[in-house]
Amino acid sequence: MKLQLLAGIFFATVCYTTADQEKTCPENEEYKTCGTACPPTCQNKSPQICTDNCVIGCFCKKGYVREAPGGRCVPESCENVPVCGKNEVFSTCATACPKTCDDSEPKICPLVCLTGCVCKDNYVRESKGGKCVPEVACKKECGENEIYNECGSLCPGTCSQPVKVCEKKCVKGCFCKEGYILDDKTRKCVKRDECPKRS
């Protein structure tokens, strides 16, 4: 009987402590057992489309909104939060190497979080001007006798080496048109018969 009583007290203490820990929230937040799945943010203070499902957790107190999805709660005036441009959203943990029209897949990038405005999903920065544009709208400007290819060769042929042994891997970029080849010296696409004669 004493053992059952001790077990009951232990269980009640553990349950009470766990429930109490769940209710501890950061500054300007409060614990709710039925909060919204779409909390307001500085960028979207009145989310229009949202599920009716209850979410348990910490939510901004009245008069506060999230500075960005998952960010801290700030006064709903959002005075110290930057106003982002068209097709941008504010982020508390953005990449240091955002995608651009010229570089849609940055290769090496430090793993750091930056705070600021970033392009919305499926948008990238223009190379000139820096506006966020749909990724599909990036202008693929290539030189004379070149075409843009989503899956070009990693080692395109040149006048001195028309056929190269190379890893079979797709590379996005500008490549010589059909019937043209890269001149090693000028780095321009020329007709094969215009290649400098080898001695």
From TrEMBL:
UniProt-recorded Gene Ontology molecular function terms: serine-type endopeptidase inhibitor activity
Keywords for this protein: Disulfide bond, Protease inhibitor, Serine protease inhibitor, Signal
Gene3D superfamilies listed in its UniProt record: Laminin (2.10.25.10)
Family per similarity comment: Belongs to the serine protease inhibitor-like (TIL domain-containing) family.
UniProt domain TIL: residue ranges: 25-76, 84-138, 142-195
UniProt-listed CDD domains: TIL
Protein name: TIL domain-containing protein
Signal peptide range in chain numbering: 1-19
InterPro entries: Ser_inhib-like_sf, SerProtInhib-TIL_Domain, TIL_dom
